[in-house]
Structures are given as C-alpha cells and as structure tokens.
Acyl-CoA synthetase (Streptomyces poriferorum), 485 residues
Amino acid sequence: MPLLPALQDASAPAAAHEAVRFDEVSLTYAQLAAAADSLAARIAGADRVAVWATPTAQTVVAVVAALRAGVPAVPLNPKTGEQELAHIVADSAPATVLASASDVLPPALAGLRRLDVSVAVPARADTEFPEPSPEAPALVVYTSGTTGPPKGAVLPRRAIAASLDALEDAWQWTGDDVLVHALPLFHVHGLILGILGPLRRGGSVRHLGRFSAEGVARELGSGGTMLFGVPTMYHRLAEALDEPAASGGLAKALAGARLLVSGSAALPVHDHERIAAATGRRVIERYGMTETLMNTGVRADGEPRPGTVGAPLRGVELRLVEEDGTPLADPASIGEIQVRGPNLFTEYLNRPDATAAALTADGWFRTGDMATLDQDGYVRIVGRKATDLIKSGGYKIGAGEIENALLDHPGVREAAVTGEPDPDLGERVVAWVVPADPAAPPSAAELADHVAAQLSPHKRPRTVRYLDALPRNDLGKIMKRSLHG
C-alpha cells in the first residue's frame, strides 16, 4: 500500500475532496497531488532536502513532494537559533531547502540551493514516482537529548505507516474525519499525526495557523470531528471555558467533536476534569516519541482515564524494566518503558554510538520514561529516568544545551537548568545561575533573550534564580535534586 494512497489517482472519488486548509488556502487531493508532483520532479534524485516548516500549505506541499519523490525530508523549525540550525544543516547535509517565496531564510541556510514552493496548481504531468521500499527513510526529525546538540532520528516509511494504521484501529479514524489542530509542522505530532494522518486516511485537516480558543470553536463547530493538541492548548481551552461570556460556543463545539486528543506531555488531571465538566466530553491521551512515533493510546471505544496514556497500540510491544534492564516482576511497580515494533526509527543520523546506546541487542528501544502498568494494560507515566528532560508547552527540551548556552554568556560563571511544574506550560524552564559578578548579575530577561537567540525561543528560561554556588558532589557533578524553589 502506498504511504499516501489518496494522492495517487487524480480520477479517484477522493480527488475533489478537501485535503488541507490553512486560513483562506484550501487544496483538494487533486490540487495537492498536482502541486506536490510538480515539485517532486524538481527534487527527484536528491539525497536529502530541508523543509522550512512554517504552519502553511506550502510546508504540506513540500513534505508530500519529498515523499512522492522518495527523498528524505528534514523539517526545520523556523524559530531555531543560528547555532542549533547550523548544526542540523551540517549534520543532515541537505542538497536543497524548500520554502515559501515570502520566507526570509537565515544565514545558516545561505549555502543551500533554494526552491520556492507554490500552492498554485499546475497541469498535472504524467510523471510516475515508484513507491520506495518501506524501509526507505522518509523524514529526519531532530530531537534534543539531555546533553549535546540535537540528534537526527531517521524515520522510515514503514514506521509512519505502522503508527498511522495503528491509530486508525485505535481511534476508528476514517476518511470522513476532519482534523483540527494548530501544532507546529516540524515535529512528529503536528506533521506526521496532524498532516500525514488525515492524508493517509483520505480525510481532511484544517490547520489554525496560530492556536486560539476561538479558532477551535469555529472549526469544530463547522464540521471538525477531531482535535489534536498539547496540554498547554487544553489548559487554555479550560481557561476559556471558565469565561461565561465566551464559553457557550466553545463548550458546544468541543462537546460535538468525536475525539479530543492530547499528547507530547501529560495533561494535568485538573484540566481533564474542567473540560469534562464543561463539555461532557473527555480528552484522551496517547504516548509517543520522535524515535518510536506512537506507542500507546486510549481507544475511541475505551475508557478515557486521566493520568494514563492507554494501552500499547496494535503491533507495539511494551515492557517495563529494572535499572539493569531485566523485566519487572511486578508490573504495578515503577520501571523504565521499553518498546519494540514496526513503529521504531532506523537510526540516529551519523551517530552509531547513540543508536547502539538507545537499543538493546534484541531491538527494544530504551525510552528513558518511567511508568507503571494498570491491571488492564493502561500505561501510567510517572516521569523521566533522568532529571534533565523538560516538557514545556508540548516540547521536549534538553537541559544540557540550555546550560551550555547560558555558560556562553559573559555574565554567567556557572549554570544549571531544571524543570518545575507550570499550570499553563506543563513545566517551565528554570535557570540556576552563579553570576560572574555577584554585584551586577545579568538580568533574567537578558539571559532569556540570549538562550532564545542561541537555541529556540521555547527553550528560554522562564525563571532565573541566582546562587553563590551550585551544589556539587565529590566528583564535581551538580546535584540537581538539591535545587528547588
């Protein structure tokens, strides 16, 4: 089966069906196929292409074109700082960058050939693009670890198809569904689930461009059947539902949706209950990672149980292990999640050491997430094995790279970064700083701007705390568990 079967035949019944909508830009399946195939013919044979992944129809055309041409695409976050972006470009070595004509690209991309992506629909050529092998790489998605620069997870076509088909089974996802979301298009949640998911099913996606409660109410109230979001978005919806003047239409729209799905981090139970009380509709959660795509999910016909992410999806093996890697004798106790199945990535690009460290000899992926298993197989995630991965606003943020950026500031002598609970973001980034000059420490705003410029805005510290010295053990390692507000 092709990865995107509805785009293969311009004469199929689905050809006139709306595929994607971004504000005033709407493309049917026939129009998307024609625009993508025109671009695919221009990039065919390339080793890799980068996609300047703005929340636009042009990004969809670019990614679909790469998939049609069998060329791995590297989605780039437009908010990424120069240092991080330069690393990604050097590591992935794309031949070309695909962008909208109006995009102003940063200097880190100046050495790449640029192709402007158009949503204007040309006459569809008779170009044939053979379907690549299921093991062929489809995307290289960069993910931040706890130390060092981001790693490129190579995602094969097999993994994308397996995850999306498992979600079809779990969520009874069909071509009649209309998905609404406002997720970024440079990572798994927004791009693979939120764009390729509907396209694989022959359904529709309406992207809000920028998240707002008003946009959600408008699109769900005019035919949307599913909503994807991160906890920060659902928290803001819960806040909007508390406003009597604006809550009526939103509550009705949410209540009318077939599925409300939250992912990328745990949705607080308080927000679960607020939404359920106002709408009569429960949010369901799922659990995935860049390297594994989707692992578990609450089924459409299952029990939406706050605090859990459902049972393993079809085709996914999941186990909990002790520190030494042996399976837990008691699944009700806490262990590290390991997963195995067709949903797994192939490797970290150019990092055989990191790939080997992430996988066991018999193919289990070490997630680093700690969890318990309910008696009926529901997974309840309790936190990270390490203390250095922060989940904020739907992003997974590595503390180590923020610490390195802070240490580049001349006013910082020592720095540590932790996460703390935040009612809106899930967790906020907290910087613990020993200033070079205690009498004139750099301001919190100055440090936040410095990190945003070096890395990405969502990685900036929201709180800065100043110390005379960081707590360290005898080996000089910072004891982060001793840091608290």
